[in-house]
Amino acid sequence: MITMDDIIRDEHPTLRTVAEEVSFPLDDQFKNLASDMIEFLKNSQDEEIAEKYDLRAGVGIAAPQLNISKKILAVHIPAELEGSEPLSLVMINPKIMSHSVQRTALQDGEGCLSVDELYEGFVPRNKRITVQYYDLDGQKVKKRFKGYPAIVIQHEIDHLNGILFYDHINEQDPFMIPEDMDIFE
Ligand SMILES: O=CN(O)C[C@@H](CC1CCCC1)C(=O)N1NCCC[C@H]1C(=O)Nc1ccccn1
Ligand code: NI
Questions:
Q1: CB within 6 Å of ligand 1 — which residues?
Q2: How would residue 54 be classed by pLDDT, with cut points 50, 70 and 90?
Q3: Which of 18, 32, 66, 171 is deepest in the core (most CB within 10 A)?
Q4: 41 band by pLDDT with thresholds 50, 70 and 90
Q5: Measuring from atom 24 of ligand 1, which residue has the nearest CA?
Q6: pTM score > 0.95 for this model?
């Protein structure tokens, strides 16, 4: 099972590396990795398991955070989460095909399981995105996302491109709200 010891932390070079596309048919190792990633997110959201294995609750994880520089990400947003639809999926070779001009940012900013320091400030994200990706069976999928799921997916796709959330925070005024951005409560 994946624990916090498997998650690399900032300054590790893999976090700043553009990950490689995965080829199909998918090796079993990547199928196993994908299910391990989803299992980690579920475990991290389970109070007892998280307590037992000292897991930090997470709603998304990308393979580079496990020092695997491949374009694989997992998202697991629980049904109980206020203000979001539930979402549980694995994306392989994801690409944002189009997005809204309108942007949004989480009211409390963002954190990252690979970043132990706190970076305060709004992280501007596209409000709506259309993502093309492959599922574990190699099926090509094209799907639109908005709201909290769209924010999580953008945070994870950033990891595949060596980008960390604080790269997006305005240095002069971390809490500035540009004209085209709203705050996601
Ligand atoms: O790349 C992936 N990561 O770095 C894990 C991150 C991904 C999210 C950060 C902002 C958008 C995606 C993550 O999940 N967090 N960031 C650090 C600590 C908190 C934790 C979190 O938001 N947890 C959570 C939220 C709601 C319900 C349950 N748990
Ligand atoms: Ni992260």
A1: 45, 56-62, 65, 81, 110-114, 151-152, 155-156, 159
A2: very high
A3: 66
A4: very high
A5: 58
A6: yes
Which of the ligands is closest to the CA of residue 58?
Answer: 1
Q: Which two tokens stand for residue 147?
A: 């709201």
> Burial of 177 by CB count in 10 Å (0-12 exposed, 13-18 middle, 19+ buried)?
middle
156 is catalytic: yes
**CA 179 to ligand 2 center in whole angstroms:** 26
4-40 per-residue burial string, b: 16 or more CB within 10 A, e: under 16: eeebbeeeeebbeeebeebeeebeeebeebbeebbeb
pLDDT of residue 134: 98
pLDDT (tens digit, 9 = 90+) per residue, 115-147?
999 999 999 999 999 999 999 999 999 999 999
Per the CB < 8 A criterion, the answer to whether 18 and 161 are in contact is yes
Q: Where are the beta strands (DSSP E) in 6-154?
A: 60-62, 72-77, 87-99, 103-106, 125-126, 128-134, 140-146
Query: Tokens 């629980």 belong to which residue?
Result: 78
Catalytic residue among 156, 171, 179, 185: 156
